[in-house]
Write a structure and sequence with these properties.
alpha/beta
Length: 444
Amino acid sequence: MSALSVLLFLRKTTRTNEDKNSLVNRERDMTCMMKNTTAVAVALCLSAAPAFAADVEVLHWWTSGGEAAAVSVLKEDLESKGTGWVDMAVAGGGGDAAMTTLRARVTAGDPPTAAQMLGMNVTAWADEGFLGNLNDIADAEGWDDVVPPAVQRFGKYEGNWVAAPVNMHRPHWVWASAEIFNELDLEMPTTWDEFFAAADAIEAAGYTAVAMGGQPWQEATAWEAVVLGISPDLYQSAIIDADDAALRSEGIVESFEIMRKIRGYVDDNFAGRDWNLATSMVINGEAGMQIMGDWAKGEVINAGMTPGEEVLCGLVPGTQGSFLFNTDFFAMFDVGDDKKEAQLQMASAAMSPTFQETFNLAKGSIPARTDVPGDNFDACAQKSMADLAEATANGTLFGSLAHGHGQPPAIQGAYVDVVTQHFNSDMSAEEAATALADAVAAAK
């Protein structure tokens, strides 16, 4: 029998008789046999291909180059252990489209095995009773001893582990083109005066000063960093506590004034631009700076560059000594016994020190485990690790509002709506502060 004949036969039988697990195995067989046409080689393909005991169906929004490279690390690790990976990638850097898709799947009674989620979303799904219990694997592997309490707050629900944390991102970085900065003899800014002076020089030289995408979550990422830079106390009161007086304060007015000034350095084509395309502008020497989380490093690495060298890293002015974080979790849905073993295997793989190092080296973040050494990480990541310890000790470690760790989704949306309305209109800073306080009060 020729390889092509076997291929056609397998396709027919898998479509009529095989379940989803067998389909994954058969497709691997087919790929092998298309490359080997002798009967002996075909037989070897069939005997050598590992049989997946079960699949994990994983919904996520890691679709950019660096993100896709990072998530493939987990996929390949699981497949090497006999667990198939059914990919449900939904494009959209902020995850809104993925959450819409997830809601539709769960409503239809067909939840995936696992879904990428940010902190408050994990809590919301657990509140609704949809998430499974990971205590068996968490207790056996000592997750409580190696995951920071601030992260455990989101990975646990009523004392039970329901999601596996895979990283800690820091959203308030400034990334800069070393090529442009060297050409113009610029230093990484540490104050807003220095930031805007650098932006003036970059613009005068014919480059875009600030690369940005006109999407609400990107604008909120910049705004929350500005608030933190004004004062950690302001971030606590206005964002974490959602205090009405703080939201109407001069500090929040100042934050909108700074955002209006940033808007003046953004190019005219920013509307709808994805974050990774803005990062590419910095990587390619088209733009001088970008305010974005350290997932931007994944794009830098994917481009064959070294963070801290070809693309410089610094913190948003005023945020030195503080640390905003957002953590990606794999929330595990309550699935049948036939899928539970594969689900626990995925949770264990995601939490292993080896995976956390490999994954975060590719993703640009730092591990969610505190026992992973930083020796193999770049200078920017090593700074994050040191700053995380400092901020934890100083009480200046905060969940990121823009990335689902500051307020529940409904209240978060009130913040984001006003921030993006201000950024894309002629609304004054005073009007924005009033509108923000009113919107948050209405959302509570």
